[in-house]
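TASK: fixed-backbone design
INPUT:
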């Protein structure tokens, strides 16, 4: 199962990367056909170095910064700290495990 999941994930990543690459190539082809770069059509992926030597990335015209990613990670951590349905599911699973263990121990004692 793990081997299948690894292969599936690799194929999914490869297909996603291929779609992004194809969109970028189509964008370049449109620019080449027009003969000029249209600012209303942003590139799919745009990587540039700024004056500090840092690389700035833009995906579909929206800048992606490390600070944005850190803020999003903090929000996700806060959401993961308490999830009502997760907690209810965990308690239900613990209760079911305890019930089955108790029933099996009673069945074991009855057989002996």
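OUTPUT:
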């Amino acid at each position: 199962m793990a081997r299948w999941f690894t292969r599936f994930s690799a194929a999914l990543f490869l297909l996603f990367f291929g779609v992004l690459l194809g969109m970028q190539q189509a964008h370049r082809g449109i620019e080449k056909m027009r003969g000029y770069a249209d600012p209303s059509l942003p590139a799919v992926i745009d990587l540039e170095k700024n004056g500090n030597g840092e690389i700035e990335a833009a995906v579909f015209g929206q800048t992606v910064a490390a600070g944005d990613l850190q803020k999003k990670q903090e929000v996700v951590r806060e959401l993961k700290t308490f999830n009502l349905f997760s907690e209810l599911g965990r308690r239900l699973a613990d209760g079911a495990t305890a019930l089955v263990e108790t029933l099996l121990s009673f069945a074991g004692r009855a057989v002996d």
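COMMENT: The chain has a mean pLDDT of 82.
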